[in-house]
Amino acid sequence: MKQKIVLMAGLLAGSVMTGYAQDIGLSQMISNATMRSRTPEGDRTYYGLWAKDKLLEPPQLKTKWESAEDSIRKRGEFVTLCGKAFLAYDERDALNTVIYGDSALRTGFDNAQLYFDMAYCYEQLGDYKQAEHSFKMAKKRGFAGGKMALAAFKQRMKERKKTEKNKEKAVMVR
What we know:
The protein is built from ten helices and no strands. It is mainly alpha-helical.
């Protein structure tokens, strides 16, 4: 009996509070505050995956495509050009690897392996500034050996500068 009275009093108090909240428009604010977006973006934000999106896709590239068809077409171009760049790299053709790789990256998509391959090709072609940039991008995009490759590249650059200085000194002595 006591339990029924407590239960009835609780239900009565709940209905009175709900009626009062509806009168002042509080129910709308509460439902909006607890409602979560069920879009993929909303779920990604809720689960903390938004940070991964920011790392993988710079904001300036997100607005590059005007429609879904444009994005699909650009992705197809990227895959084709990336494949050509990888084939050129396998054939040890540094110039074509860089040409196809740069063209692929201009579509708005990227690939850590592509950055890594292009870095070695830039180094072979003597463009050390672009090589360093590509090694850094490969590391930033999560290439497995990116950190070690960048460190090795920097070490090679130190040795190259040292040998150039020694050559200059030898020429000046003569």
